[in-house]
Amino acid sequence: MQVIRWILGRLILLFNAVFSPKPMKREAAQQQQIDAEVRRIQLYQFEACPFCVKVRRAAKRLNLPLETRDAKQTSWEQELINGGGKRKVPCLRIEQDNGEIEWMYESADIINYLEKRFA
Ligand SMILES: N[C@@H](CCC(=O)N[C@@H](CS)C(=O)NCC(=O)O)C(=O)O
């Protein structure tokens, strides 16, 4: 089972690399502003998790320089559990304007959020 999972994970990464989405283009000033906003958002994820790949593809399509944090690393894993409440990925950590932190789970919700905010 572990081996099949590993093979599937590699296939997903291969597919993702071959059929990489094309980033949308923006005017330089607008892109700069978005880059600054995205610095306050991080994606907790596993490299070969299909739901995480889906979110990373959406971020790439939207041309967002989204920081990813590997939740298999103990420090990020602990931060995810402490902040978000569970060890599940993908999870988006969003720093709000008032400094509050929101932890968003569910790939569909995360993609919806990114599209609404940055598309
Ligand atoms: N419905 C969720 C599914 C997420 C999910 O199942 N993630 C798996 C990894 S692929 C997970 O975090 N499992 C918990 C674990 O491995 O500890 C989504 O779309 O984000």
UniProtKB/TrEMBL annotation:
UniProt domain GST N-terminal: residue ranges: 39-119
One Pfam family this sequence matches: GST_N_3
Signal peptide range: none
Ranges that cross the membrane: none
Alphabetical list of InterPro entries matching this protein: Glutathione_S-Trfase_N (IPR004045), Thioredoxin-like_sf (IPR036249)
Listed Gene3D superfamilies: Glutaredoxin
Protein name (database record): Glutathione S-transferase N-terminal domain-containing protein
Organism annotation: Photobacterium atrarenae
